[in-house]
Design a protein that fits this description.
- With 453 residues, the chain is α/β, with parallel strands linked by helices.
- The chain has two domains: 2-219, Spore Coat Polysaccharide Biosynthesis Protein SpsA, Chain A; 225-433, Hexapeptide repeat proteins (UDP N-Acetylglucosamine Acyltransferase, domain 1).
- The chain is built from eight helices and 34 strands.
- The strands form five sheets. A seven-stranded mixed β-sheet has the order 5-4-1-6-10-7-11, sandwiched between helices.
- The N and C termini lie far apart (88 Å).
């Protein structure tokens, strides 16, 4: 089967410089969702018809299995499909999808494909409360489809029809070529309508069949920011309910956003206002506190992520405690039972089993062993203004508060670093390290007072 995705339109009502089909839904372009669904049907040819912002669209969704046809001028949906014809295999049917209709399920498309087979013309239709703006499905007394009439060309009686054209159709390809070539644009919009192909098919004695989606939202398109926001909510609700069905506890399914894939083990709990981006994996019994943002992360069983934690490209082992207000950046790897507390940032660093950095700390480009205690206000000075260097800390080190570790530097196992130490030379195993400084007390000091004016 061939699949053609129409994506040439400008999307004027989006009021944006970004081509309409590139506006994100769940963090990815609308068109990327349609391409994903198309791929599940294993098409032999997959062609996207581009026009407005063609270069940006190609760049955003280009892939070895996707071909592009350019429609220089948007002369109508029929004209758009025509541009793809040279790239199609005429011996198999062609399914037409819209790049701005992102939520159609593969099962619905399969139903349409099954109804049409290889010889019939199939139209996905849906009956709606308010059909304003859509093409109407006109049937004869026997219920057979006679034609599709656009809103602007419809009579009063036709406008009362509530069964509408979703725009998604499937057709034998060889005959489609002839039908498209015969289209005229003598209609209210002066366009070559794909919908007029229905009458051509009937004239040619080809049966026109219809299929319906399970849910109306599957056929909703995006023409405005309002519709984009509405579809985003529908999609997020679907994702949240799938998580609930899988046994995940969500404090509020309306306040969980997944922009990518979220895989959860058993008995995972997620509090309100969390955003998951990219690929996130949560092990059994993980609990996520409110207002966390977690992207491209893997979090081990029994780990607790407290409120306002921000994770981007990190890995946490089992029974870790993170946050509140912790930040993991790319390359952060926390061993089992590690603790990373409030206002602690970990980047490109490994913390061994049971190591703790509970307060106000920056750990960057470091290898920290097991059972290390990192005191409040510890900073790894990993950047010399030109290059980054590593800090290596052995097992069982105790780092006093307000310590600076000037990399590259190595601290042997069992070392004790006194509070307020700047460590810029390597320290051998088991030693105590401190900077000698004097504490001075002055008895004759008078604190300034505010001048009166
Ligand atoms: C179309 C259908 C209408 C249907 C509705 C469903 C026709 C004539 N009408 O109307 O029956 O109810 O969709 O939403 O087909 N496009 C191009 N090139 C063009 C014109 C459109 O690529 O020259 C693309 C658009 O980017 C969009 C899709 O085709 O993705 C639909 O175009 P649009 O103008 O929105 O069609 P409607 O007038 O809504
Ligand atoms: Ca439309």
């Amino acid at each position: 089967m061939n699949i053609v995705i129409l994506a040439a339109g400008m999307g004027k009502r989006m009021r944006s410089a970004l081509p309409k089909v590139l506006h994100p839904l769940a963090g990815r372009p609308l068109l990327a969702h349609v391409i994903d669904t198309a791929r599940t049907l294993s098409p032999t040819r997959l062609v996207v018809v581009v026009g407005h912002g063609a270069e940006k669209v190609r760049e955003a969704v280009g892939a070895p299995d996707v071909q592009f046809a350019v429609q220089e001028q948007q002369l109508g949906t029929g004209h758009a499909v025509q541009q793809a014809l040279p790239l199609l295999d005429s011996s198999v049917p062609t399914l037409v999808l819209y790049g701005d209709v992102p939520l159609t399920r593969a099962s619905t498309l399969k139903r349409l494909l099954d109804a049409a087979g290889t010889e019939r013309y199939g139209v996905l239709t849906v009956t709606v409360d308010d059909p304003t703006g859509y093409g109407r499905i006109v049937r004869d007394a026997g219920g057979a489809v006679r034609k599709i009439v656009e809103q602007k060309d419809a009579s009063e009686a036709e406008r009362r029809i509530t069964e509408i054209n979703t725009g998604i159709v499937v057709s034998p390809t060889r005959t489609l070529e002839q039908w498209l070539a015969s289209l005229k644009n003598d209609n209210a919009q002066g366009e070559f309508y794909l919908t007029d192909v229905v009458e051509r098919a009937i004239e040619a004695g080809v049966e026109v069949v219809t299929a319906q989606p399970d849910a109306e939202w599957e056929t909703l398109g995006v023409n405005s920011k309002v519709q984009l926001a509405e579809l985003e909510r529908i999609h997020q609700r679907n994702v949240a309910y799938a998580l609930l069905d899988a046994g995940v506890t969500l404090a509020d399914p309306a306040r969980t956003d997944v922009r990518g894939t979220l895989e959860c083990g058993a008995d995972v709990t997620i509090d309100v206002n969390c955003v998951f981006e990219g690929r996130v994996t949560l092990g059994d019994n993980v609990s996520i506190g409110p207002n966390c943002v977690i992207r491209d992360a893997s979090i081990g069983a029994g780990t607790r992520v407290d409120a306002y934690t921000h994770i981007e490209g990190g890995t946490a082992g089992a029974n870790v405690v993170l946050g509140p207000y912790a930040r993991l950046r790319p390359g952060a790897v926390l061993g089992d039972e590690a603790h990373v507390g409030n206002f602690v940032e970990v980047k490109n660093a490994v913390m061994g089993r049971g190591s703790k950095a509970n307060h106000l700390t920056y750990i960057g480009d470091s290898d920290i062993g097991a059972r290390v205690n990192v005191g409040a206000g510890t900073i790894t000075c990993n950047y010399d203004g030109a290059n980054k260097h590593r800090t290596v800390i052995g097992d069982d080190v105790f780092i006093g508060s307000d310590t600076q570790l000037v990399a590259p530097v190595r601290v042997g196992r069992g070392v004790t670093i006194a509070a307020g130490t700047t460590v810029w030379k390597d320290v051998g195993e088991g030693e105590l390290v401190l900077n000698e400084k004097r504490q001075v007390s002055k008895t004759d000091y008078i604190r300034p007072t505010k001048k009166k004016v």
